[in-house]
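Our platform keeps sequence and structure together, in a single record for each protein. Such a record has a labelled line for the sequence and another for the backbone structure tokens. The tokens are whole numbers drawn from a learned vocabulary of local backbone shapes. The remainder of this section carries one protein's record, kept here as part of the documentation:
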Amino acid sequence: MSTTRKIPMRQCTGCREMKNKKEMLRVIKTPEGDIVLDTTGKKNGRGAYLCFSQDCLCKAVKNKGLERSLKMQIPEAVYGQLREELKAIEAK
């Protein structure tokens, strides 16, 4: 008897769609309070998920989805840094 593995699903904080965890980008708040992108999905910290698109990041900024998920105010400088890192990832 074969068993099927459960595929972990996560909701994008921008477009609010449920997708496979591996198809999404994780944004974490580290225990020190820094906001960073986690491309491996294994770093320690509170996480929120985004699709691999600038549109979803813009939507998450507009509806404050990341701030709600990470339970903290996020400065505009951090959003700028996230945009740059996402551009670098999209270019690959």
Summary: The chain has a mean pLDDT of 90.
